[in-house]
Amino acid sequence: KEHPQSHDEL
Amino acid sequence: MNIFRLAGDMTHLASVLVLLLKIHTIKSCAGISLKTQELYALVFASRYLDIFTHYVSFYNTVMKLIFLGSAFSIVWYIRRHKLVRRSYDKDHDTFRHYFIVLPCLILALLIHEKFTFRVVMWTFSLYLEAVAILPQLVLLQRTRNIDNLTGQYVFLLGAYRALYILNWVYRYFTEPHYVHWITWISGLIQTLLYADFFYYYFQSWKNNVKLELPA
What we know:
The structure holds two protein chains of two kinds. Chain A is mostly loops. Chain A contains no helices and no strands. Chain B is mostly helical. Helices cover 69% and strands 0% of the residues of chain B. Chain B contains nine helices and no strands. The chains are: A little secondary structure, B mainly alpha. Chain B: It is a multi-pass membrane protein. Chain B: This is ER lumen protein-retaining receptor. Chain B: It is found in: Endoplasmic reticulum membrane. Chain B: The chain crosses the membrane at residues 55-78, 98-115, 121-140, 152-170, 182-202.
């Protein structure tokens, strides 16, 4: 599962 | 990056530029809520804690710097600039910060994806951004005269959120395992807060009359 910190949105 | 995301970011950028134009050129912050601007500064400060440690792209880093820099300079202008601060409508901008900040902090401590300082702060910034517009909307309702730039500013901010929802829908269907419940629900609530404003904004546009929110 993708880590929220790696979220690429602003 | 898809077209909705880019359009959303550009609309967000445009909203900041419109506000800076009003403040810097006209030297007025009439109708602008300092409370909302301070909340946005807090939103970006807590969300972009990893700006120098977690690299995503050149685009992301530049945009983060712009949003951080503009948020703090707007707050500085309204609080410190000798001409701008005179136009600040202090008596009507009475929303209390802690009514908004405290519940968001508690919610972030309770509902998050991972219990680490950075993730909790990141989640807090999402919850806070969702409701940070409330003092501004309250101020608009109390202000009989909403000038053009203030109206455009709030409209662009709302449009940015609506475009981000389209971006999520697009990404959900095009990317594998793209599910972010916390981001989506807070983003949806944030956009719904603009529904009333949008209604009156389009009414005034259609009938070509000055924007005014009912008390």
